[in-house]
Amino acid sequence: MPDGKRPEEDARAVVNFWGEEPATEAEYYAAHGAEGESSYFAAPGGGRLFTRAWRPRGGAAPRGLVFMVHGYGNDISWTFQSTAVCLASSGFACFAADLPGHGRSHGLRAFVPDLNSAIADLLAFFRSVRRREGHAGLPGCLFGESMGGAICLLIHLRTPPEEWAGAVLVAPMCKISDRIRPRWPIPQILTFISRFAPTLPVVPTADLIKKSVKVPAKRLIAARNPMRYSGRPRLGTAVELLRVTDELAARLGGVTIPFLVVHGSADEVTDPAISRVLYDSAASKDKTIKIYDGMLHSMLFGEPEENIERVRTDILAWLNERCTPEGGGSNLIAQDCIQDSFQFPLYSDC
């Protein structure tokens, strides 16, 4: 590299996932046609959820609300923001919260022994947003990545069908693939041990960044996330994910929400074949599936820019077709955010 430093040393210099400039989040948002804010929400189950909102710049009326859910071990303050900012600059108001045990929200890091409680807290936050002044009549869509995709489907299955205009599911974890699911009696053993030591981080797992992120320079950025959980999954969390995905797999036929599911054909973290099962099983009359050849799990950050543009274009086109606010609203084209591709000059020689 030009300064003779190793890539890992350069990674330590990164303050934000986009690099040293712009210096602040507000400047970064403004440079990409958005504005944002953060706060805490008092969860009904106790504790506080750290939340963020991203809106079109200049107070423009949004054409819809997008409620976003991150994946396991992730959070809403690092690379997850790039998608929210893109959607906001294209006319959508986006809202997200760090799940319990993740990011800046309450709870032991990466310990999620009860997803039902986490979903209830998240739903309470989403509904509080929908009650805010100026949001009446705006369509609300769910958006979830990986485990967040599973949570979006569970929210849909536990709420009135008319509550959501649709869902965008990015590499959703709808079921643990038989290819990687632990064989009997491993799940039974894990369940038994978790009763006595649920927080123990001992469940074997592969390097998720290497399996998820295709571009080497972006692996460094992902690894630098100060809020990211990089340890082994905790017993209680692993058992709960098995339980929830088993529940969801058994209820795919009850899915009626309009949805777009996008998945990379080379994803080794969640199985694209399971997304096909979701598409085939769901009772939704309006459903779309797109499998992108050769893409990995991190479709909206970890891929080359041209791949990210493809996925964003498809997502924005789908949302624009289904989000028509009462009384009209802005209808910005997908290219408005895609033309501002994110660059990573610190890592250009990697």
Explained architecture:
The chain is an alpha/beta fold and 350 residues long. The protein has a single domain (7-344), classed as Alpha/Beta hydrolase fold, catalytic domain (Rossmann fold, 3-Layer(aba) Sandwich), CATH 3.40.50.1820. The protein has helices spanning 7-12, 25-31, 80-89, 115-130, 147-157, 186-194, 208-212, 216-223, 235-250, 272-281, 305-322, 335-338, and strands at 34-42, 48-56, 64-69, 92-97, 140-145, 166-170, 259-264, 287-292. Strands 1-2-4-3-5-6-7-8 form an eight-stranded mixed sheet, with helices on both faces. Helix 3 (80-89) links the parallel strand 3 and strand 4. The longest helix is centred in the C-terminal third of the chain and has 18 residues, at 305-322. It is globular.
What order do the helices and strands come in, and which of them pair?
Elements lengths: L6 H6 L12 H7 L2 E9 L5 E9 L7 E6 L10 H10 L2 E6 L17 H16 L9 E6 L1 H11 L8 E5 L15 H9 L13 H5 L3 H8 L11 H16 L8 E6 L7 H10 L5 E6 L12 H18 L12 H4 L12
Parallel strand pairs: 3-4, 3-5, 5-6, 6-7, 7-8
Antiparallel strand pairs: 1-2, 2-4
Features of this protein?
350 residues, alpha/beta, Rossmann fold, eight-stranded mixed beta sheet, 12 helices, 34% helix, globular, MAG_DAG_Lipase, Hydrolase_4, Serine aminopeptidase S33 domain-containing protein
